[in-house]
């Protein structure tokens, strides 16, 4: 992950490829505990991989990667169970090490993203804030900003590319 964040695309692709079986196992386990079919695991794994990709700059390289990954998976699993009307139970204790203590302060990574995003064009800045600070998904961001979902994805991609350049010192 560190190499991927530093711009090594091959290392990043290898990381995602090697994480997939690990994530699949966790998703299947969570679905099984909730009394759901493990066939739904692939959709959850894809959601997690997308979240890892879009939120990878929120991971703090000095921190362990696995708790960050488990937190993402936990949220995607809960989202999937809610969407599909689960009456099952997800044991929150299994994810206890991935749940941060409550705080009124925004995370350091979030503050850094907000600060860096201030120098982006207004549309990109608004999309980054909506998705990373407010936690909205593409559809919610599109509605809030009166944009199409495609325009949100383009602005997000361009904004993340701009942030990456800033972090590498290219700007």
Q: Top keywords for this entry?
A:
2 domains, mainly alpha, Arc Repressor Mutant, subunit A, Rna Polymerase Sigma Factor, Chain: A
Order of helices and strands: HHHHHHHH
Shape: globular
CATH architecture assignment of the largest domain: Orthogonal Bundle
Number of helices: 8
DSSP summary, beta strand count: 0
Total domain modules:
2
Cα gyration radius (Å): 17 Å
The percent range for helix content is 55-70%
- Give the biggest beta sheet: none
Which regions have little confidence, pLDDT < 50, spanning 5+ residues? none
N-to-C span: 23 Å
Share of residues in strands: under 5%
What does the model show?
This protein has two domains: 2-98, Orthogonal Bundle (Rna Polymerase Sigma Factor, Chain: A), CATH 1.10.1740; 108-168, Winged helix-like DNA-binding domain superfamily/Winged helix DNA-binding domain (Arc Repressor Mutant, subunit A, Orthogonal Bundle), CATH 1.10.10. 66% of the residues lie in helices and 0% in strands. It is built from eight helices and no strands. Helix 2 crosses helix 3 (41-55), helix 5 (108-117) runs antiparallel to helix 6 (122-133) and helix 6 crosses helix 7 (138-145).
Concise summary:
This protein is mainly alpha-helical and 171 residues long. It has helices spanning 2-5, 9-33, 41-55, 65-83, 108-117, 122-133, 138-145, 149-168. The protein folds into two domains: 2-98, Rna Polymerase Sigma Factor, Chain: A (Orthogonal Bundle); 108-168, Orthogonal Bundle (Arc Repressor Mutant, subunit A), CATH 1.10.10.10.
């Amino acid at each position: 992950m560190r190499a991927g964040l530093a711009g090594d695309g091959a290392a990043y692709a290898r990381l995602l490829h090697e994480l997939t079986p690990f994530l699949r196992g966790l998703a299947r386990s969570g679905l099984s505990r909730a009394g759901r079919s493990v066939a739904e695991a692939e959709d959850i794994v894809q959601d997690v991989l997308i979240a890892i990709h879009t939120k990878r700059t929120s991971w703090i390289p000095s921190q362990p990667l696995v708790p960050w990954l488990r937190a993402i998976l936990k949220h995607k699993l809960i989202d999937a169970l809610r969407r599909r009307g689960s009456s099952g139970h997800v044991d929150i204790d299994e994810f206890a090490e991935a749940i941060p203590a409550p705080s009124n302060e925004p995370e350091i990574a979030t503050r850094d993203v907000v600060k860096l995003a201030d120098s982006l064009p207004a549309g990109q800045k608004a999309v980054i804030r909506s998705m990373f600070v407010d936690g909205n998904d593409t559809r919610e961001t599109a509605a809030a900003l009166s944009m199409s979902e495609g325009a949100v994805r383009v602005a997000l991609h361009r904004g993340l590319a701009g942030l990456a350049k800033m972090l590498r010192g290219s700007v």
